Amino acid sequence: MIRIMKSRDAAEVFTRVETRLAEAEAVVRPIVEDVRVRGDEALLEYARRFDGFKRASPLVLQPELDAAAEQLSHSFRDAVTHASANIRAFAELQLPAEKTHELASGLRIGHVVRPLDTICAYVPGGRYPLPSTVMMTVIPAQVAGVQDICVTTPKATPEILGTAALLGTNRVFLLGGAHAIAAFAFGTDTVPRADRIVGPGNIYVAAAKKLLAGEVGIDFIAGPTEILIIANEGEPSWIAADMLAQAEHDTDASAVFLTTSPLLAQQVAAEIEKQLATLPTAVTARQS
Question: Which residues pair with residue 196 across a beta bridge?
Fold first, then answer.
């Protein structure tokens, strides 16, 4: 729930995530080590305990991916096609080019950029499916020329599996949490060892990525959502909507509004309460 506080009392807000991450590291450290030592045996034990996993193998076969794609509505497929084209175009603009230069006779310098062999795209399986995460992690890897692109997610939703199928990704695993991160960091009999793990996750996923950075490449520690809005003037309903759009992600999310205007702070607080009354995710947003 929104709280209005003086700047001197705000330290707890800015240190909350750091404290929670340290607590999460203590939880996931033995899980990571267990997967390293026992491989698939430990991996599937944690998948059954935390994800409700009931399959023989975490690998999703092509017929299931194709069936998920068939379940998608025409409008959803069109949205994936349109978004994918934009993401691909931007990724192509970002692609670093090989470059050579002759400094002097017989002295040539330059750099060659080669793609990684294997990446793992982690797609959260929280309250809502995130096909956008599939696109924004898989497509840049495709543009870069990565040959082995794996997607892992703890939930088999048509949106996630179908989007992966539409992108031509056929290495999809039903694994989540710290145990999935550990499996792709070390490799097991079932799961390939990745050169890099990308994608967001909850605080336990973030903690596992932090612990394993160095063992495997990571994008960054994308822990629970944080947003800081700084404004002395503005439309209160817009500021409130921006804050709630992040607060609804997770009970560990932090949405902070920094202002020198007591009036604007009160207006934003009132608008947040107004929007919470009709927000389907109000229960989560209020707790964050």
Answer: 119, 217
The residues that bridge with 226 in the sheet, in sequence order, are 254
pLDDT at 126: 75
* CA atoms of 281 and 74, how far apart (whole Å): 27
Range 225-287 classified under CATH 3.40.50.1980: yes
Looking at the domain that runs over 11-93+114-223, which CATH code has it been given? 3.40.50.1980
Give tens-digit pLDDT for 43-100.
999 999 999 999 989 999 999 999 999 999 999 999 999 999 999 999 999 998 889 9
Contact predicate 178/148, CB 8 Å: no
Q: Which residues contact 202 (CB under 8 A, 6 or more apart)?
A: 124, 126, 177, 223, 224, 250, 252
Beta bridge partners of 118: 148
Radius of gyration from C-alpha coordinates of the chain:
22
Q: Calculate ∠ Cα 57-144-118, nearest 5°.
A: 30
pLDDT of res. 12: 67
Instruction: Identify the pLDDT of residue 11.
Output: 67
Residues of the chain with CATH 3.40.50.1980: 11-93+114-223, 225-287
Q: What is the DSSP letter of 7?
A: G
